[in-house]
Write a structure and sequence with these properties.
It is found in: Cell membrane; Membrane. By secondary structure, this protein is mainly alpha-helical. It folds into 2 domains: 1-210, SecY subunit domain (Preprotein translocase SecY subunit, Orthogonal Bundle), CATH 1.10.3370; 211-258 and 288-461, SecY subunit domain (Preprotein translocase SecY subunit, Orthogonal Bundle), CATH 1.10.3370.10. It is built from 20 helices and 3 strands. It has helices at residues 2-13, 15-34, 44-56, 65-73, 89-101, 106-112, 115-149, 155-158, 166-194, 199-210, 212-224, 229-253, 294-302, 304-309, 317-320, 328-349, 352-361, 373-404, 412-415, 420-460, and strands at 255-268, 271-287, 364-365. Strands 2-1-3 form a 3-stranded antiparallel beta sheet. A hairpin with a 2-residue loop joins strand 1 and strand 2 (271-287). Helix 7 (115-149) runs antiparallel to helix 9 (166-194). The longest helix has 41 residues, at 420-460. The radius of gyration is 26 Å and the shape is globular.
Amino acid sequence: MKEFIQTIKNIWSLKELRDKILLTLGLILVYRFASYISLPAINMAEVGSLLDKYQSQGGSKQGAGLLGLLSSFTGGAFSRASVMALGIMPYISASIIVQLMGMAIPYLQKLQKDGESGRNTLNQITRWLTIGVCLVQAPSYLTSITKVFLPTTQFASAYLVDPNSIILFWLPSVIILVAGSVFAMWLGEKITDKGIGNGISILIMVGILANLPSAFIQEFTTKTSTGGSGAIMILIEVIFWLVVIMLAIILSVAVRKIPIQYVSRAQARGGVNRNLMEGARQWIPLKVNAAGVMPIIFAQALMFVPGLLTGIDSTNTFLAGFKNVFSWQYNILFALLIIIFTFFYTAITIPVNQMADDLKRNGGLVPKVRPGKETSDYLDSILSKITLPGSIFLAIFAILPAIVHGTLVSTDGFALFFGGTSLLIMVGVVLDTVQQINTYLLNHHYDGLMQSKLSRTSNNI
């Protein structure tokens, strides 16, 4: 405990780090405040009463099914008809599209290799593509809140203007939703540039954590209303949740270390001495889950397709199951897609051929493996072996909310925190932010040592 308090003091004593943290917290507050500003055409008080009525009937304030999942990423702004309803997700979608297009379009491949100027151009392309994605998602969202979230018989009380009017409702609402998403993107980039951590990921994490208190309170109320055993069940749920978080951290940081031996050749008379001198031993850390949460994001994007098919044949109970994130149909297909996308994304992001070439060029080799193609095949073999269990564990984490829902956890909202994208994003963002803070502390410590050494040297002189 003393070490933790001392670390907090060290963080606060660094003016640069303190300013970055305060700026980050300030921009997060702006983002959360904006998420409570409703669209001008929406009667926010009436929408709140409708959501309360839905919740009293056993539902969740974040909605149900896939729409509720989207709402959880925006901190409830999606279900509140907020100006920030689309949140940062259009930017995430645009980034994924640009990353995938970079595999097939030579121009984007060239930009990826052009250093800082190329990254700036890719960022600009991503920003414009974000606006394009918003122009597609905004009308879809407006359709959802007029046809799904709000009962059809209460349109008059939920809207201040005619929801069928293009001039009064659709056009202004689309413009405001696009502006809100662009503003969220700007806040994320400012946090990345001027604050601490990855701004885009932090905004997603904040949106997810915003739902945690209400979800826990709802779960606590549901459990304790059943009798004296409810408090014990809540304690069991919290302990199990902490165990799941610990396992998620292990999955995020687990690596397979490949030993690398760097060697050098000593010059001899008349040529090069073939005897290799032992150099420094290092490691190539291959992550068990090198793809992170991207396979889950890709799979969730595709899982909307079966749900849309329900609109074609609403009487088909099998297809109807794909609209419920807790159904067995949804989760079996979801797990299979995650395993497939994990191998796919790992293959395109871990260039084993380039790694083998770089090792050969820098005089490094894997012990008992020849440089070049054999090294590439060896790395590919190891990567495939660790990716299989990594993908299976990732799939289990993704469908864990459906497993605990109805068996251990009673409410939809709290069940979503037992795995899936929500938990992995929270764990990944926290680990990344803590690592950046530790880097600042270490750099300050090293600067202090260097300054003391320089001062002692100058005194000796």
